[in-house]
TrEMBL record:
The gene is sbcD. Gene3D superfamilies: 3.60.21.10. Keywords: DNA recombination, DNA replication, Endonuclease, Exonuclease, Hydrolase, Nuclease. SUPFAM superfamilies: Metallo-dependent phosphatases. PANTHER family: COMPONENT OF ATP-DEPENDENT DSDNA EXONUCLEASE, NUCLEASE SBCCD SUBUNIT D. Coiled coil: none annotated. Pfam families: Metallophos (PF00149), SbcD_C (PF12320). Transmembrane segments: none annotated. It comes from Streptomyces enissocaesilis. One of its GO terms (molecular function) is exonuclease activity. Belongs to the SbcD family. The keyword Cell membrane does not apply. This is Nuclease SbcCD subunit D. Residues 267-355 form the Nuclease SbcCD subunit D C-terminal domain. InterPro entries: Calcineurin-like_PHP, DNA_Repair-Maintenance_Comp, Metallo-depent_PP-like, Mre11_N, SbcD, SbcD_C.
Length: 393
């Protein structure tokens, strides 16, 4: 069976205030064309269809057109909700849409009810595991722990139990939206850390033939059977070196997996350039970036006059300007952003406590309290996205 695995469309997202709807429409055109030309048997969309819980109307219309075109192509499509989507809103009408071959899986309680498709070698069971916010689903899965590994592990136990009841030789595919250990993140994924831990081990998915992951924006294989498709477009400058693709997966009669990367259309390349202003506007080696979206980091010791105007004269698509003056590491004026770089919310909060106490950081009780508050803020945000009122803990 030939499967096209994609994810993280983030319909409605912009790139530094540049509207990407036309680029997203071009990707969906490419997707439908690939489905037809490469004889795809099933399309998988592993979450983050939209960029936010309440997407703009133009993004909803684009999604609607894509669904109609996939249904018209006669190729079944399985989709799950991601951490950017509102599971409730995305899942509206799922029962009716199911009849058209578009299978929306947004309810965690239904994770062990697969979409079963067949080819010349028998059945393939596709299980949709939407993004699981631990604090919101731990009651459903009756887990002792409240972290990602606990809830994803419990969901996978249900899936393996269902699979065990199916005819021998049934192949299996799981769609999941999660941060799997070994994956390489970028700056554009929303933090899903719970209790200081964001990732789940790849071994939690043992027992199935292929795992189609979403969440991380770089196309990558965690193992031969556990893969991220990545986002079809660059959504941050940290993705400047990404090759944007989808996976074309051939699932053999015994569950063998062969994968091919199919390149996505590139509306405009993204690039980071760094140096003093005069160097950037004169360096001939930078000519290859003149039509790219640009993030320019200026290292001039003193901020030069009209830097954006001068950069834009050569690089008309400069959308981000960063100042990082060349200073000695011990300089007290060193960038605050540089001091925070690579540090998560918990570390920043603990550093602040140490700062206001003259160097004495939080004790274990205070550290646990800080983490609990940070987790509560994230959960409340998730509840608000789905229009839920009241705490679920």
């Amino acid at each position: 069976m030939r499967i096209l695995h994609t994810s993280d469309w983030h319909l409605g997202r912009s790139f530094h205030r540049v509207n990407l709807l036309d680029a997203q429409a071009a990707f969906l055109d490419h997707l439908v064309t690939t489905v037809r030309e490469r004889d795809v048997d099933a399309v998988l969309v592993a979450g983050d269809v939209y960029d936010r819980a309440v997407p703009p109307l133009a993004a909803v219309e684009l999604f609607d057109r894509a669904l109609h075109r996939l249904a018209a192509a006669g190729v079944p499509t399985v989709m799950i909700s991601g951490n950017h989507d509102s599971a409730r809103r995305l899942g509206v009408g799922a029962g009716l849409i199911d009849r058209a071959g578009i299978h929306l899986r947004t309810d965690p309680a239904g994770c062990a009810t697969p979409v079963v498709l067949s080819d010349a070698h028998g059945d393939v069971a596709f299980y949709g595991l939407p993004y699981l916010e631990p604090a919101l689903v731990r009651e459903e899965f009756k887990t002792a722990g409240a972290g990602h590994e606990a809830v994803v592990g419990a969901a996978m136990e249900r899936i393996r139990a269902d699979l065990a009841e199916r005819p021998a030789g049934t192949r299996s595919v799981v769609l999941a939206h999660a941060f799997v250990a070994g994956g390489e993140p970028s700056d554009s994924e929303r933090d899903i850390t719970v209790g200081g831990v964001a990732s789940v081990p790849a071994g939690v998915f043992d027992g199935v033939d292929y795992v189609a992951l979403g969440h991380l924006h770089g196309c990558q294989a965690v193992t031969g059977r556990v893969r991220y498709s990545g986002s079809p477009l660059a959504y941050s400058f940290s993705e400047a070196d990404h090759r944007k693709t989808v996976w074309l997966i051939d699932l053999g009669p015994g569950g063998e997996v062969e994968g091919e990367r199919i390149d996505c259309p590139v509306p405009r390349r993204v690039a980071r350039i760094r140096g003093r202003l005069e160097e950037l506007v004169e360096d001939p080696a930078l000519a290859r970036h003149e039509e790219s979206w640009i993030e320019a980091t200026l290292t001039d010791p003193v901020r030069p006059p009209e830097p954006m105007a001068r950069l834009s004269a050569r690089f008309p698509h400069t959308v981000s300007l960063v100042f990082a003056p060349e200073r000695a590491p011990e300089d007290p004026l060193a960038s605050y952003a540089q001091r925070l770089k690579g540090r998560d919310d918990q570390q920043i909060a603990e550093d602040f406590v140490a700062h206001v106490r003259g160097g004495s950081g939080p004790d274990d009780r205070e550290r646990t309290l800080l983490q609990s508050v940070l987790d509560d803020v994230r959960v409340d945000t998730a509840l608000a996205q789905d229009g839920v009122r009241g705490a679920a803990r």
